[in-house]
Amino acid sequence: MALVEAGKEALWLRGITSELGFPQKSVEIFCDSQSAICLAKNNVFHARTKHMAVRLNFIRDVIADGSLTVTKIGTLVNPADILTKSVPVKKFEEALSHLRVLRD
């Protein structure tokens, strides 16, 4: 599950920035999958997801203690699409500005 992997990476980066003197209370992850957000936030047992139970429990614990927050982002405005899909030039340029990538 991509949300779990992103959460692990975000927590690792939070630790590194903390060591460098830039502590953060919570890390916000944007996700365009409503079902992944529901699975991460809801503690109800789902028979179809029992193979992901360990990973889901990790992300649920991290969300519950406030170290991580997950926010829904619309598919049309998701800047991460430029890393995974072929997108038109205009959307590519908008995504670069959201990611704070500057041109010279």
Strand segment tally: 2
Structural class from helices and strands?
Answer: mainly alpha
Please work out how many helical segments DSSP would assign. 5
How many angstroms does the end-to-end distance come to?
37 Å
Average per-residue pLDDT, rounded, comes to: 84
What's the multimeric state?
Answer: single chain
| DSSP strand content | 5-15%
The largest sheet is: 2 strands, parallel
Sum up the overall morphology in one term: flat
Radius of gyration: 16 Å
Q: Which stretches are poorly predicted, pLDDT < 50 over at least 5 residues?
A: none
What does this structure look like?
It comes from Cardamine amara subsp. amara. This is Retrovirus-related Pol polyprotein from transposon TNT 1-94. The chain is mainly α and 104 residues long. Helix content is 50%, strand content 10%. Strands 1-2 form a two-stranded parallel sheet. The radius of gyration is 16 Å and the shape is flat. The model has no long low-confidence stretch (mean pLDDT 84).
In short:
By secondary structure, the chain is mainly α.
